[in-house]
């Protein structure tokens, strides 16, 4: 007496796991491929759209880290608006420049770096000679300008198409170095190239010349680093020095050139310092936007670079840091897609975002300690991987949802709708057997075996389907539950799902409707035309205690009712057949239904012996259907 075949086979679960494994593998391959490609570009120093994001994130972290105290050994002598106004315009005359350098040289600085281009002969040769003589009194470096076309050699060193150096009359008494600054995709100065390749060989940067001159040693370039004396400064790709301004303009100690010349500034304060001369006047046009100042004078950036090389307090972004960025990008991308692929979408997204936020926090702390970890690379690597994985999972889940709905619908067809609904909201229903007094009906389509021989298997199946639909619809309309279809028969119980005071009355009404509707259906159906009384319905019905429970294995269970009541109801069907009646109902059911005078609606009363039962039972029989 099987009620429903709710089977949870191992094959669907195995198939789901296989699909999940394939999805996770595909997600990981995609994430590693994407993040690996980005990591390769990052390690190689290739320009990508991520550079704009990285620029914004770097400025943010620079502002979060805040201003820093610059080293005391660096000082700037500013060619400011005061001296330009006194000298009658910009650039100031070389005679004034000679007097300024003479004044500084008297303080015996450690080194002098002049961020002024002397590319042409002056109008007054004696002024040029005076300038050269002043420069000879102090270890000095003069500015040179390189022209680049964004080409680098195989080592990432920029290639200059030309280098404009000071004229020989002035430059003969001093060293020279290129003052070019490397800007990022947002136009913010991020690096100072320490060397450049030219047709004449290697051109050295202004800041490297000045730092080495102050240290009284020659710089030694190694793989990803430069050594100045005992100090080793790590460099970015192509021997680029990362720039980290100390703050806005004038953060580095700055003295006015006009104040030095008129004696209002203490020249002695420049003693044993690295002095950088450069323009800060508004007309100088040598300014850059930084995180701290939108009009940072170029001389302050050069002074910052010299300070980095002198004190070693520059940002560290060498090959090792870039490889760490790459490892973080690949790891975060893999972790993010694993979360999205395996965990519930909401918590997975939150955890993945927490991972990215944690990396940004780590990068911010590292930045404050001078290590420049990439912020954009891991976000891009993990972010796009997460998005693609989330979209793919949504499609997969939607497909699974459709398949699950189809499977659920198919499973629902293997059991009564009311039972399916009950199991949906109460999966533990009848996990423990339940004792209850209820009506039990057995129904049989008498004479159908002979009809099926005439109809053939296809039409037989169609006829049975119609009969089963009629039984199920009629029983459900009276609160009954078809717990099993048995060929051309069925077993129906009432009040099985929940206690129902009217269960006995409903069962009696259901028997009447079943007889009437079955007769009408047989009369109308063309396939059954002419069957007459050879085809009819018979019902046996009884009321009493039963045990409702689940029977079967762990993976294949059905709901059933067992006990003497079920056996008696089944035997009453045989009694109805023996007496050629359509309905055999026990007096127990009629009493429970409140029918005190059964003889008004039944044709015959009988005391029937039930096989396998010691006590006979009072049975009421009906031969013809009740009037409509």
Please explain how this structure is put together.
The structure is a single chain. By secondary structure, the chain is an alpha+beta fold. The protein has 3 domains: 19-62 and 319-408; 72-310, no CATH class; 423-622, Alpha-Beta Plaits, CATH 3.30.70. 45% of the residues lie in helices and 23% in strands. The strands form 6 sheets. Strands 1, 19, 20, 21, 22, 23, 24, 25 and 26 form a 9-stranded mixed β-sheet that branches. Strands 2, 3, 4, 5, 6, 15 and 16 form a 7-stranded mixed β-sheet that branches. Helix 1 packs antiparallel against helix 10, helix 10 (319-342) packs antiparallel against helix 11 (345-368) and helix 11 packs antiparallel against helix 12. The longest helix is centred in the middle third of the chain and has 37 residues, at 376-412.
Classification by helices and strands: alpha+beta
- The tally of strands reads 26
> For the CA atoms, what is the radius of gyration?
48 Å
Average the pLDDT over all residues and give the rounded result.
88
Shape: rod-shaped
The main sheet comes to:
9 strands, mixed
